[in-house]
Design goal:
Blueprint lengths: L1 H22 L8 H30 L1 H7 L7 H5 L5 H43 L8 H4 L4 E5 L6 E4 L5 E5 H6 L2 H16 L2 H14 L4 H26 L1 H12 L14 H11 L6 H30 L1
Parallel strand pairs: 1-3
Antiparallel strand pairs: 2-3
Helix pairs in contact: 1-2, 1-10, 1-13, 2-3, 2-5, 2-10, 2-13, 5-9, 8-10, 8-11, 9-10, 10-11, 11-12
Length: about 325
Amino acid sequence: MTALLGLLLLGLLLSTVAPRLLARARWAEREPVLALLVWQCLVVAVLLCCALGLVLAASAALPALRAVLFTGAPHGVEAAYALQEAEGWGRLCAAILAAGGVQTVLALTREVRSAKALRNRRHAQLASRAPELPESIEALRRRRERLVVLENVRPEAWSLPGHHSRLVVTTGALQQLTDRELAAVLSHERGHVRARHHWLSQCSQALASGFPGVGVFSAFRDQVGELVELAADDRAARRHGRHTTAVALAELNLDRGVFGSCPPGLAQSPKRVDRLLAGRPRLPVTHRLRLTLAALAAPAAAVLLAAAPGLSTLI
């Protein structure tokens, strides 16, 4: 029973205190990819606490499941968990955690289906509005993502992920951007596609919509939305220069009024331009290594906490 309570307390700690500290971390803007890893490890650790807690709680509530779980375990391991003494608490915890697990699966399934339907609809609309460029163009044949040009005076560029991913630019963007700026924009969008940022966005959105009252999931969704853009900016900046990428980003957003008073959804663009122009250096390798180890320690702690009673018996 101690392991079950420890998992619940660890999950509570990770879902309340850790997100606040991470959201205020100033190093995240300098290392967006590392920040994404830290957030993912945090969310995985919270989910692990719930999943392992569910296993232990269900084992306490159901003797048959407990017998199956500890089949083949050395003598004394089952007794170390003291699950047979907490049948009542086990049923309550198992019911709550099982409801959360069902809610997670339903929310994730709903989000994946919705995102897939939207992606298919956008692919169909794109196919009807603009034919694909000929495959005989050698530069395009070497790319995993096809380039599609839409007739539109507004300068825009975006990506459509999926099995047949597309990079979309408008004729307005072709007229307004230089060749280097256009290459930076396409590198940015290609970064989204190749890093599978849409998968991360779908998972974060599913958790946030499935558990609207859980702060760690809503913070995860918000941070993912910002960090994937910074990560894609860095990819473009490494290949085409920070100044070129910043100018391209500014050119695409000038007509939207984002550099004045604008809605919160568009307010990130000026910050991204300022960040690119500032050109702050990356964190030292040792600092990055420490942050990576700390991130991996969160899910590892959940596993070790669940296995601690059994390991103490064997040692």
